[in-house]
């Protein structure tokens, strides 16, 4: 595969509402979208910086993966998302190189993107998302 840029950085927060002022007032970014992704049990808030987004993730379920992440590690960087031309092709390519996949096939993420995750155990500790417009 050829990742073209960092599509977004996913950051786990306890509360989107309480986190937005940091990004808006301190960093001078503007939250342009808040969206719930029901099947991932998260509410997301987006900021644009260059061609990269910051994606804040708040759990909507105490058993959700973001809630568990915060429980174990606290708030902070959760994943890095790379833009690729085709998530399906990128997954096949990664798998052929021995990378463990969390998603065997692309699924829909926030903002209408096709997404899939690679397992941090085979990506040097970074939960890696692949995104396609
Ligand atoms: Zn993401």
Describe the overall structure:
This protein is α+β, with helices and mostly antiparallel strands and 133 residues long. It has one domain (5-127): 2,3-Dihydroxybiphenyl 1,2-Dioxygenase, domain 1 (Roll). 23% of the residues lie in helices and 38% in strands. It contains three helices and eight strands. It has helices at residues 16-26, 65-73, 87-96; strands at residues 5-12, 31-37, 42-49, 52-59, 76-83, 107-108, 114-118, 128-132. Strands 2-3-4-1-5-8-7-6 form an eight-stranded mixed sheet. The mean pLDDT is 96. Bound molecules: zinc ion (ZN). Zinc ion binds next to strand 1 and strand 5. Residues 8, 10, 55, 79, 81, 129 line the site of zinc ion.
Give a quick rundown of the structure.
This protein has a single domain (5-127), classed as Roll (2,3-Dihydroxybiphenyl 1,2-Dioxygenase, domain 1). It is 23% helix and 38% strand. The protein has helices at residues 16-26, 65-73, 87-96, and strands at 5-12, 31-37, 42-49, 52-59, 76-83, 107-108, 114-118, 128-132.
Structure characteristics:
2,3-Dihydroxybiphenyl 1,2-Dioxygenase, domain 1, globular, 3 helices, binds zinc ion, 8-stranded mixed sheet, alpha+beta, single chain, 133 residues
SSE blueprint:
Blueprint: E1 5-12, H1 16-26, E2 31-37, E3 42-49, E4 52-59, H2 65-73, E5 76-83, H3 87-96, E6 107-108, E7 114-118, E8 128-132
Parallel strand pairs: 1-4, 5-8
Antiparallel strand pairs: 1-5, 2-3, 3-4, 6-7, 7-8
The protein binds zinc ion.
Zinc ion (ZN) is lined by residues 8, 10, 55, 79, 81, 129.
State which percent range the strand residues make up: 35-45%
State the fourth-level CATH superfamily.
Answer: 2,3-Dihydroxybiphenyl 1,2-Dioxygenase, domain 1
- Total beta strands: 8
Distance between the termini: 16 Å
Task: Name every ligand kind in the structure.
Answer: zinc ion
Shape: globular
The secondary-structure element order is EHEEEHEHEEE
Query: Could you report the average pLDDT, rounded to the nearest whole number?
Result: 96
CATH class: Alpha Beta
Query: In the CATH classification, which architecture applies?
Result: Roll
């Amino acid at each position: 595969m050829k990742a073209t840029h960092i599509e977004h950085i996913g950051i786990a927060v306890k509360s989107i509402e309480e986190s937005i002022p940091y990004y808006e007032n301190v960093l001078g970014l503007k939250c342009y979208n808040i969206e719930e992704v029901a099947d991932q049990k998260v509410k997301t808030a987006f900021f644009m910086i260059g061609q990269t987004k910051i994606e804040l993730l708040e759990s909507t379920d105490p058993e959700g993966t973001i809630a568990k992440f915060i429980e174990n590690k606290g708030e902070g960087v959760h994943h890095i998302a790379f833009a690729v031309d085709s998530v399906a092709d990128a997954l096949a390519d990664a798998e052929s190189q021995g990378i463990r996949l969390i998603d065997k096939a692309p699924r829909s993420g926030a903002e209408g993107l096709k997404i899939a995750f690679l397992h941090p155990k085979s990506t040097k500790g970074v939960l890696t998302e692949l995104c396609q417009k």
